[in-house]
Amino acid sequence: MSDLPVCPACSSPYTYEDGIQYVCPECGHEWSGEANVESDDTLHVRDANGNPLADGDSVTVIKDLKVKGSSLVVKVGTKVKNIRLVEGDHDIDCKVDGVGPMKLKSEFVKKA
């Protein structure tokens, strides 16, 4: 039996490969082969040590971070609770005590 995926649009088992794409002959739907490998829509964010992060985790800042537009600094060792993962360069959305809401890069935190 073939190990080709079923069509995500109509669930037809009669799909075939066309180069790097899959095609369904029944409904005409086309999708890329890479989409089959990683089909979940969750963000995969890792901290500075390579540990996976998730929404609601607590992290610790590992480097002094200057807050853009002010003279405030988020000090090393500051614990940030209840983070939220977002897409983009600054992939952590959080509220830092004493500073307020801000976005952080995951490369400057470690999982607490």
Automatic annotation (TrEMBL):
Pfam families: YjdM, Zn_Ribbon_YjdM. Residues 45-112 form the Protein YjdM C-terminal domain. Residues 4-32 form the Protein YjdM N-terminal domain. Belongs to the YjdM family. This is Alkylphosphonate utilization protein. It comes from Halomonas alimentaria.
